[in-house]
Amino acid sequence: MRLDRFLEARFPSLSFSHIQRVIRKGEVRVNGKRTQPKNRLEAGQTVRIPPLRLEEPKPRAAGGEAEEKTRTFLKSITLYEDADVLVLNKPMGLAVQGGSGTTRHIDGMLEVLRDARGQRPRLVHRLDKDTAGCLVVAKTRFAASALAKTFRSRAARKIYWALVAGVPKPRQGRISTFLAKEERAEESWMRIARHGDEGASHAVTYYAVVETAGPALAWVSLKPVTGRTHQLRAHMAHIGHPIAGDAKYFSRENWELPRGMQNKLHLFARRIVVPHPRGGLIDVTAPLPPHMQQSWSLLGLDAARYDPIVEAPEG
């Protein structure tokens, strides 16, 4: 089990972002050494936990204008909800978790949805801040445990839509590389790495061109098999077709967005299909975010067009 999930299960009153912060700061040690939130624990390891000020989970009192606003906002972006699971349509530009200088994020907002027993909804996967679309949230501890296993075992099917520079050839393909995190000053990005490089993880993405807007732009559907940080953005840049509006991975000289299009990341989590913790399937589709809807209209792309990525293999 991942170290951050292990601590989350044992200390339900701590927010997930707080747990990740104390691990990153080196306050949690495994066998006496610093570690990372994503590292998996093994039987027999010793985990040293710093003194934590835990509050008894208590039902939240209804009220407070800010809380009511947050509750209304979450309701407005809800695509699917039942007793165990919530699927949100995360807007572009809203962070999923807190970080340095980030105070407004989905994880913090979920606090207003604590139930009568003090249980708060939990994140089970993430999206980049600038990626809009389907975000699955577990409402119960039971669902959190089941969904965490689902995402770990790659049993969740995710489909993303992007607008990329140029037209990929062949029009359908598989991208397989190793990715490793590169950090400089306060910036970090994923670089294409070699097998065996320190911190390198294997990443696989299937892509399919859905429609083109001349030779300059293509609407591409993407199916990630693995779930690495910035995987789709790094992979599309790697094959020479970076995603429009991607300030981090778009390095083409003198390339300009067509007039009238917003210079924002044109990538969103279009659809997610996951086994429901209590049986059956959850299959949710998000509408194009406003800036991409504007681009689709300008370019004459039809969002109802058949998406060939559904034919791509699952693994």
Describe what you observe in this structure.
- The protein has 315 residues and is α+β, with helices and mostly antiparallel strands.
- It has 3 domains: 3-48, Structural Genomics Hypothetical 15.5 Kd Protein In mrcA-pckA Intergenic Region, Chain A (Roll), CATH 3.10.290.10; 65-152, Pseudouridine synthase (2-Layer Sandwich), CATH 3.30.2350.10; 157-311, Pseudouridine synthase, CATH 3.30.2350.10.
- Helices cover 20% and strands 28% of the residues.
- It has 7 helices and 13 strands.
- It has helices at 3-10, 16-24, 65-76, 106-109, 141-152, 231-238, 290-299; strands at residues 29-30, 47-48, 78-81, 85-90, 122-123, 132-138, 157-165, 172-184, 187-193, 201-213, 217-224, 267-275, 281-285.
- A hairpin with a 3-residue loop joins strand 3 (78-81) and strand 4.
- The longest helix has 12 residues, at 65-76.
- 33% of the residues are buried.
- The model has no long low-confidence stretch (mean pLDDT 90).
